[in-house]
Amino acid sequence: MSATDAPPNPWFSWDYVARNWGDIERALTQHVSLTVQAVVLALVVALPLAGLAHLRPRLAGPVVGTAGVLYTVPSLALFALLAPYTGIGRTTVLIGLVLYALLVLVRNVLVGLAGVDPAVTDAARGMGYGRVRMLLQVELPQALPSIVAGVRVATVTTVALVTVGVVVGYGGLGQLMFRGFRSDYHAEIMTATVLCVLLALVADLLVVLVGRLLTPWRSARDRQAAAA
Amino acid sequence: MDLLTEAFAWLNDPLNWTGRNGVLALTAAHVQVTLVAVLLAAAVALPAGVALGHARRGGTLGVVVANTTRALPTLALLTLLASAGLFGNTATVLACAVFAVPPLLTNTVTGLAGVDRDVLDAARGLGMSGPRRLWLVELPLAVPLVAAGVRTAVVQVLATVPLAALVGGRSLGSVVVSGFATQRYGQVLAGGLLVAALCLVAEGLLALAQRTVTPRGVREAAGRGRRPRRGLTAADPVPAVATARGPGSNGITR
């Protein structure tokens, strides 16, 4: 296979995929592992944080405010601010991704907790539930739809955001896009783009499925009513 | 703190501020690209949003557009456009315009479709024709949401433009990218601070502007109690982003 036999289509080339599968696989694995780690870590931090802000409403303002300001900071700037301290590589990308996902999640969990029907919490209080037990056993399960929606948005944005990691040399599929741009190899860019979008869609579907499994009491009709 | 000193030393050097690739010129380029991109997006999204919202349709279209553009990485679009032959800032403007469409479109549609039907009935009872209703009733009532959409779009594009430095666009992001390339991390830090500051300042200014353009009656009504917004529940991923994007209590959701 010489370099002279140009692919028939410069944008879509199966030949490229077949020849470079090892490379693509490595980028894809990196992309997936970064996304999963970031979303899981963010969720682990966001749930207690939002719970605390819900129990202590005075904290809610500062928490949401800080989140808003941080969210306004562009990803490139955030990586630029982190990289000198956390070094070039995986840690920097992961911290950045967790921060952005965290902001989406905290907001959504808080919205979900605030949206719980007062009649439900009244009933729980009447049954003698304490504040913390009510949060864990009544309010959080009730807020699940909103939390799942937050996880969906966080997952899809994280998949897209991983690509920005190229600035510190750790961008998953973004690495392929950038290399393709540098060497003017259109098929490489296109393959990485398509894989990235597919990954986002698959991840979104998986989160939706998990959400359905977690909320079996929501019937199909509820869902339709919520979607309308 | 050594790096911070280095960053401030970089920021203090007048040579870094003037000239073709100085901070001032790059900021000007940054803002210019942003404005062109948002105007381009607005030229498409606002008329479409008004038409769809007035007809009370297009909710699904907004969701689809928003979800697709969220899944598409900015870097992908930038590298695709740049290597398709659109070098420099043309690729940047086009890519950013694509990402500015969803907030503008969805907010315009929700703003118009969220106008209370009773209000429209009253306007019809006063003898207003369709276009008059749109101009005198629906649009003023939709202003807060449309303005919030413009604000989100501008800040989002300001945040996206720096990425274009990776594919050869000129903006404040160039400071960061060339800092990374030459391993001068003081410069990287300085560039990061500049970009972040630009976005935060723009966000603040636009929040003020949004307040100014909101008709006084609407502002007072919003102060007395929020009108319920149709179709914006936390169960839907799209409003969740609208929530996340608009930090202030600007009425994007709820």
TrEMBL record, chain A:
Q: Name one GO cellular component term.
A: plasma membrane
Q: Which GO terms describe its biological process?
A: glycine betaine transport; transmembrane transport
Q: Where is the protein found, in the record's own terms?
A: Cell membrane; Membrane
Q: Where is the signal peptide?
A: none
Return the SUPFAM superfamilies for the record: MetI-like (SSF161098)
Ranges of residues in domain ABC transmembrane type-1: 28-207
How is this protein positioned relative to the membrane?
Multi-pass membrane protein
Q: Enumerate the UniProt keywords alphabetically.
A: Membrane, Transmembrane, Transmembrane helix, Transport
Among its keywords, does the record have Methyltransferase?
no
Mind telling me which residue stretches traverse the membrane in this protein? 34-52, 59-82, 88-106, 143-169, 189-214
Q: Which family does it belong to?
A: Belongs to the binding-protein-dependent transport system permease family.
Give the PANTHER family listed for this entry: GLYCINE BETAINE/L-PROLINE TRANSPORT SYSTEM PERMEASE PROTEIN PROW, OSMOPROTECTANT IMPORT PERMEASE PROTEIN OSMW
Q: What is this protein called?
A: ABC transmembrane type-1 domain-containing protein
Automatic annotation (TrEMBL), chain B:
Check the record and name the Gene3D superfamilies matching this protein: MetI-like (1.10.3720.10)
**Top-level taxon:** Bacteria
Tell me which Gene Ontology terms the entry assigns under biological process: glycine betaine transport; transmembrane transport
UniProt-annotated stretches for the region Disordered: 218-254
Family annotation (InterPro entries): ABC_transp_perm/SBD (IPR051204), MetI-like (IPR000515), MetI-like_sf (IPR035906)
Species per Swiss-Prot/TrEMBL record: Cellulomonas persica
This protein's membrane topology, according to the annotation, is: Multi-pass membrane protein
Query: Which is one Pfam family of this protein?
Result: BPD_transp_1
Keyword annotations for this protein, in alphabetical order, are: Membrane, Transmembrane, Transmembrane helix, Transport
Q: Which residues form the ABC transmembrane type-1 domain?
A: 27-206
Q: What is this protein called?
A: ABC transporter permease
Question: Where is the secretion signal located?
Answer: none
